[in-house]
Amino acid sequence: MRLSVFVLTLGLLAHAAQAQVLAGTVLDSASGKPIVGARILLLDSTGTAIKSLVTASDGQFSFSILHLGQYRLLIGRIGYPISISKPFLFGSAFTARVSLSLPSNPITLDTVTIVAKEIQRRLPYLADAGFYRRRQIGFGHFLTRDEIDKRDPLILSDLLHGMSGVRVTCGGQERDRAPQGPGSRCTVTMRAANTMFFRRKCNPSVVLDGVLLQPGGTGGGGLLLDDLVNPFNIEALEVYPGPEGVPVQYSGYLSPCGAILVWSRR
């Protein structure tokens, strides 16, 4: 199945006397019709996701921004690579309109084929990122797209159930799989990182295509993991239950409780 390219049109409205509003509409470039179900994350100046929403049936979305500063948008839609906008700045008085197009290289969804022997693909961009090298070393848990499909996840936390050192809690109880239906909310913490220095819940950092979406630690207030990434868009996944093995660029104070590295489909 091949999807056509669509265009994201954003309207940014800022008012000095009240909270800034970032609003817009996601449109299909060919038909001009609104696109429903595009997931949009609002990233602050550090690259941390602070808000998340999905476009409505009319393709529209709206963020309320309480603080002035620099922000970016991360946009994802099933069948397309994830795209991150260039930084934009909210000043004391700011009005602008920005048009942002997703890359014109739609993902072709693979046809299910039964073969006598499985041949493992090595994708160049995952090799460049060091995914296969780290998997060979053996620290952490690693999933490729084929392994993700076998687990048939509805949400990202479905992929983490049963992994040693990872605790998935849904509705206050640990589960083997997230409950289905509205209101199903799951949190992910790391068992292996709970030491004498971390007595509270220890949250992993979350990295998407090399961009830090959420730092780890014992602090709260961040978005839930399932709000950050749709499992359909994932090509590969790295899960580190503790700081050991976390790539150096994301280690240290960024990932004291381990890390989850997500690589999107391209």
Plain-language structure description:
With 266 residues, the chain is mainly β. It has helices spanning 124-129, 131-137, 145-151, 225-228; strands at residues 6-13, 20-28, 39-43, 49-54, 60-65, 69-76, 83-84, 88-90, 95-101, 141-144, 166-170, 173-174, 186-190, 205-208, 211-214, 234-240, 259-264. The protein contains 4 helices and 17 strands. The chain has 2 domains: 6-101, Sandwich (Immunoglobulin-like), CATH 2.60.40; 124-264, Ferric Hydroxamate Uptake Protein, Chain A, domain 1 (Beta Complex), CATH 2.170.130. The strands form 4 sheets. Strands 3, 4, 6, 7 and 8 form a 5-stranded antiparallel sheet that branches. A 5-stranded mixed sheet has the order 10-16-17-14-15. 9% of the residues lie in helices and 34% in strands. A hairpin with a 6-residue loop joins strand 1 (6-13) and strand 2. It is globular, with a radius of gyration of 19 Å. Residues 1-9 and 11-17 have low confidence and may be disordered. The two termini are 15 Å apart.
Distance between the termini: 15 Å
How many independent structural domains? 2
Instruction: Give the low-confidence spans.
Output: 1-9, 11-17
CATH superfamily of the largest domain: TonB-dependent receptor, plug domain
Largest sheet features: 5 strands, antiparallel
Please identify, by name, the CATH architecture of the largest domain: Beta Complex
Compute the average pLDDT: 75
Range of helix content = under 10%
Q: Kindly provide the name of the CATH class of the largest domain.
A: Mainly Beta
DSSP helical segment count: 4
Total number of strands: 17
